[in-house]
Design a protein that fits this description.
heterodimer; A: about 190 residues; alpha/beta; Pyruvate-ferredoxin Oxidoreductase, domain 3; 6-stranded mixed sheet; B: about 600 residues; Rossmann fold; 4 domains; 20 helices; 22 strands
Amino acid sequence: MPNDKTTNILIVGVGGQGVILASEMLSEVARVMGLDVKKSEVHGMSQRGGVVTSHVRFGKKIYSPLIPEGDADVILAFELAEALRWLYFLKPDGTVIVNKQKLAPPITTTGNFTYPEDPEGKLLEKVPGSKIVDTFSITKKLGNPRLVNTILLGVLSNAIELEEDKWLDVIEARAPKGTGELNKKAFLEGRAIK
Amino acid sequence: MEMLLSGNESVARGIYEHGGEFASAYPGTPSTEILETIARFFKDDVYAEWSTNEKVAVEAAVGASYGGARSVAAMKHVGLNVAADPLMTLSYTGVGAGLIIISADDPSLHSSQNEQDNRYYGKFASIPIIEPSDSQEAKDFIKYAFEMSEEFDTPVILRLTTRVSHSKGVVKIGERRTVEHEGFQKNIEKYVMVPSNAIKRHKIVIERLERLKEYAESTPLNTIEMNDAEVGIISGSIAYQYAKEAMPNASFLKLGLGYPLPMKKIREFASKVKRLFVVEELEPFYEEQIAAAGIAVEGKKYFPGFLELNVNRVRDGFVEAGVLDRPKTTVAFQREEVLPRPPVLCPGCPHRGVAMALRKLKVYTTGDIGCYTLAALPPLEQIDTCLCMGASIGHAFGIEKAGKTDKKTVAMIGDSTFLHSGITSLASVVYNKGTQTTIIVDNRITAMTGGQYNPGTDKTLMGEETHAIDLEQLCKALGVKHVRKVDPYDLETTTAVLREEIDRDEASVVITTRPCMLFPRKIKDKPYEVKLDACIACGACFRVGCPAIYASDEKNEKGKPKAEIDPVLCTGCSLCAQVCPTDAIVVAE
């Protein structure tokens, strides 16, 4: 990734999963590296259990804070159905990193809507190299369920060229109080997944 | 020093750096974080408050400006409708120290009931409009806004949009500089808008607008970037960023001052380019004025007037206009229909019990602006109207007076919304002998916008202890004889009390007593669980519409799924247990 090119990362998930904090950390790492950065997301009504997306763009000079459709280098999804929903933003040769988790919205209990069948299979069919990350086994090992975002950032860090020590500094500074070390560990666990 | 700041944080920073001393607002997405940022980081230098509503916020800021403090009042776009009364005449009086009215518009109505374009307020009131296009400008333009306000003796509208307010960008930080102003100066001709004075002031407004037009020609807020002369683009706000990315080789006239327009500059720019386009979000605000000046221009024909723009939409418009080749790389993946994931009431939300009780009572519910509007969605579907702040009470009253509706109608309004603009409606109900029941769902916070204090809470924005209005006493003082309080987690009592009050042939108010489960602190009692062997898969708990309840893989003999409860999400409100016919839902062991 040469630095004069714009890198586009679309982070998606469900309200409350930590999408916004992950995008904050990613943007800050890019800023610390001296790049122009923009990120955009929507607050308010949609946060109540709805779909959350955060667009992060960095490079030499960024204009639009929103990633154009079909232009995302990476889709980082915190949830399987959300990866499918936002896939149309991905570049032809883009990367998909997805948390191996299904969150069926309450609307499915009405019987009018069903959660997609075999979302992993669907994803792999469309993007054969999709990285499906079993964050649950890692959070279990580390003993805290609230580490999904830093694990996923670790996996993401292999797909883009931002320096490891900058990542660790930012995670230390931005993780919730008292969880800096644990979040750095989680990041490195994610980074070890190649 | 550089920081990554949102547009709203940048505006707050700009107010601090450029000598702001007073800031008032009513919370509203996408504007809320402006005042939160001031209160969090700059409260030693800038006074910040949540006002009761936007009209009050503007009036207080006007007073502070008359009184010699650089002031701002911030609100979402529809908030400016509430504040339109002071705004229109404020244009006549002008200001004391610099005064900025911030309007955060919401194209694509991410969190709003409409997508009105508030640039028209500038034209309507003859007030200049400043439109930043990113975070750096959001901070820097505050300086111009204050200076313009003082130089021209006019309020200035700073118009933001969701993507300016809520996008972050790299911002260069500066130091605070203050400007000295005297306190209130008696000047009856300027400040007392009786007809004899207002007539003279209107003339001054017209003259001021002419001087502002001259200023528009020379201000550094408007910039020309000459490039390829085939295509010239006039744009401002976030649309500029999209257009710049879509058409990097075109020539641009970027408008930082959105009103009044620099018509000489526009004419000169038009003469240098082969085809002139306006790229603007929502209404053809620039385009109509430019066309009216007799300049050939194209715009809304290619760039639709609804929903926010983006690079793709702008690109498509220029392809259609024949000045851009269709991009060679087509989108690799098609948009796919994935099940909807609408926002929902939180697990443990105190509004849920009220909606369930009303559903049982088979009444219509006129709704208002707040989280409880989400009870309009399945499976609750118990909100029947939503128009604007405070409207629920008047709606229920009008439906009753019309006298043609088979069912009873109740009004449902939040504590903050009631204080914002429900009190006057309730007074009118009592005065005009309405008999409706008004439910104040009092969760002790302004929840939808992220948990802000209001005059019903005992804390101010700056964290000081204060008087909390007693809603029960207030309603009684308005003349409502029957005011009752209920615990919305107690479904049976809530239903019984509501039934009694709805049946009563006199106006009544029912106030709920449970706080929001998120603010000011997260509520988490012992979670419940489903005894699967006792669950008969009747679906009663599914109709509670709680995000913590999901369909189990285990099914009954007819193949219908039983229920399970996510112990992390469950707050222990017990509503689902109360509707379970087989007592299969119990506190988790």
